[in-house]
Specification:
The complex is a heterotrimer of chains A (about 120), B (about 120) and C (about 100).
Chain A lengths: L7 E7 L8 H14 L4 E5 L22 H6 L7 E5 H6 L12 E3 L1 H9 L1 E6 L1
Parallel strand pairs in A: 1-2, 1-5, 2-3, 3-4
Chain B lengths: L7 E5 L2 E5 L13 H10 L6 H17 L5 H12 L6 H7 L4 H8 L10
Antiparallel strand pairs in B: 1-2
Helix pairs in contact in B: 2-3
Chain C lengths: L1 E5 L8 H8 L5 E4 L22 E4 H6 L11 E3 L1 H10 L2 E5 L1
Parallel strand pairs in C: 1-2, 1-5, 2-3, 3-4
The chains are: A alpha/beta (about 120), B mainly alpha (about 120), C alpha/beta (about 100).
Chain lengths: ~120, ~120, ~100
């Protein structure tokens, strides 16, 4: 069996886009709390979650805050490992150039490896 | 998180400022340096230039990220804005004793930091 | 080895794709709640390639009247078996 990789303490998988539900916000909150307490946190944007990264997001139709400012803030919490499911992007016809932050795209094999490599995985 | 519950009013020169149960401004747009001074004096803190520059860092942080920072990102933001000597928790502890992220956010007219206990 | 847990039917939700994307070759997959529909012969092809590593929870199959409809390639486990699967895995990852 493969040895677990030491990628970090916590992997937060974000599978929902902004504005549609509170899942993305809650996942980001969990990541920020862990980071505020000194845990090493990685984020993995999967499926529809990749849309959280699309550049040039605005407030919602009723003026409600989005999550883009929170994503900009991640570096202040030393959350620098931002991973994206490559298939999630290509399924929507998006590429890295469409995203607001520098990310690492993961092939299916690399993605499975990342899950094994974290001591705790939370899916949102 | 910002609350809308009014616990008491802070009076400054016949103006009334609504304060929530944890001491934060209910309406953050009402903030002014006078409000900060009045809140600080309730805490027994006299605001010096060293305090004000931290409050400014916090207000910039909030303007950019729409959230009040927990302690670690506050230390980082202060370090980036004011240099490594000031970007240390001991410096913030000295200026805003107790829980610097919360005390300083309160005085800066920000909502309560979301990501600290 | 991780134990992945899916609680949605592949007939109505694409969550199974995320679980599959997250699985390493030795990982196991347990179907629970509405996810047990994936154990039906008509739907089990969604999980092609997981032979020997695909499990479904007996209690959730039974409550839905599906116990007798399970594909032979799916290993049916009860709650105690669920506990054992959990113990054998380094960690569990839930997909919902």
């Amino acid at each position: 069996m493969q040895e677990p990789h030491d990628d970090g303490d916590l992997l937060v998988i974000l599978r929902h886009g902004p504005h549609g539900s509170s899942w993305l916000k809650e996942g980001l909150d969990a990541a920020l709390v862990a980071a505020a307490f000194g845990r090493r946190v990685s984020l993995l944007f999967m499926g529809e979650g990749v849309t959280a990264l699309i550049a040039d997001q605005q407030v919602g139709a009723l003026g409600q805050k989005g999550t883009a400012a929170t994503l900009e803030m991640l570096e202040m919490y030393d959350i620098e490992t931002l991973l994206v499911e490559a298939q999630g992007l290509s399924r929507l016809g998006l590429s890295r150039d469409d995203l607001m932050l520098e990310v690492e795209c993961l092939s299916p094999v690399a993605l499975a490896r990342v899950l094994s490599g974290h001591r705790l995985v939370l899916t949102f | 998180m910002a609350t809308t519950e009014i616990y008491r009013y802070l009076s400054i020169a016949s103006q009334q400022y609504a304060i929530d149960p944890e001491g934060y401004l209910v309406n953050i747009t009402e903030w002014s340096p006078e409000v900060a001074k009045a809140m600080a004096s309730e805490d027994g803190i006299v605001l010096t230039p060293e305090h004000w520059e931290i409050l400014e860092v916090l207000r910039d942080f909030y303007a950019r990220y729409e959230m009040a920072p927990a302690m670690r990102p506050l230390v980082k933001a202060v370090g980036q804005a004011l240099g490594p000597e000031k970007g240390r928790s001991i410096h913030l502890m000295r200026l805003f004793p107790g829980s610097p992220a919360k005390v300083a956010a309160r005085l800066a007219g920000l909502p309560k930091p979301t990501h600290c206990l | 080895m991780l134990l992945h847990i899916v609680n949605r039917s592949p007939a109505t939700s694409r969550v199974y794709l995320q679980a599959l994307a997250g699985m390493s070759p030795e990982d196991r997959l347990l179907l629970i709640e509405d996810g047990v529909q994936g154990a039906l012969p008509q739907l089990v092809p969604y999980y092609a390639g997981l032979e020997g590593r695909l499990f479904a929870l007996r209690e959730d199959l039974a409550s839905r009247g599906l116990l007798g409809h399970c594909d032979a390639s799916v290993q049916v486990v009860d709650v105690d078996g669920f506990v054992i699967l959990t113990e054998e895995a380094e960690r569990t990852v839930s997909w919902y």
